[in-house]
Description:
The chain is mainly alpha-helical. The protein is built from 13 helices and 3 strands; from the N terminus they run H-H-E-H-E-E-H-H-H-H-H-H-H-H-H-H. The longest helix is centred in the middle third of the chain and has 35 residues, at about 150-185. It comes from Urbifossiella limnaea.
Amino acid sequence: MTQYPDAIRTVRWMVRDTFRQSVATKLFWAMLGLTLLCAAFCFSLTVEAATERPRHPAELPTYLPKGEKTPEVVAEGVRVADGKVTLGFGLFEYPITKNKSDAVRVILVWLAGIVADTVGVLLALLWTAGFLPTFLEPAAVTVLLAKPAPRWAVLAGKYIGVVLFVALQSTMFVGATWLATGAATGVWEGTYWVAVPLLVVNFAVFYAVSALLAVCTRSTVVSVFGTLLFWLLCWAMNFTHHKLASDPVPGSTRAASVLVQAGYWTLPKPLDMGGIFFDAMKAEEYASPIPELAAAKARGTYHPEMAVLTSLVFAAAALAVAGYEFRHMDY
């Protein structure tokens, strides 16, 4: 029974060491700098448009262009775009076909769905991929393994530490951009905070693969490129599944369909993670949905809860294999 207090202390020490490592390598400050840069971008927004209004259930998410505002159109009650968004404190501007609240929500969807959920997660995987290989070098880990601490606790502590570090950075990113956007536009979209757990889950799933590669190879290069290639594979499989479900390829066989289904349900689903945030923000009311996801929803083949669950199961399996390999690794 004494191994469990030792394991808990080991996990806590590894979490603390991960944050210390992030500061020592300047990674903490680099990610914080990107957050502040995005916050400055949000603070530079100016939206000149009509305020929020009641929305008809059958209303289309776009308006007519501003130049088509004729007496006949006005008489019919058709809404015509007459607003604009300025960026960079007035350096750039573009017309919008939405009201003020919808224009701000579109920007938030892009920030969380593209900048953070895709670019941000990939950069986090890239920058943290070296944490485990560096730690697993014999000169670094043998000092810890010489003490009575279970190896699984060492690996789990490092993994949890990196995930908590990314969770902190995700919270600061969402919080800073939310505050800056709200202060600049007066639109405070609380649903935007849903992005935090989705970003953390998405990163945690793929970092489990990075941990497995690190344990098996002890190579930062393999961990970086292997994880990025695996992310591309998962995204392509996720996209292909929804694409074939809505638009079957002529000549495809039953075996091909079974293979795609097996790959989809086995592998993580980064595209579906973005779809969950899109739905949480009710973005279909003011932005064009992803055609493949929209088609999957129409056919009943899109199950967000199962997408999250199966992705987490895959991550748990990858960590279990990594723990087994680490346990039997010679130093």
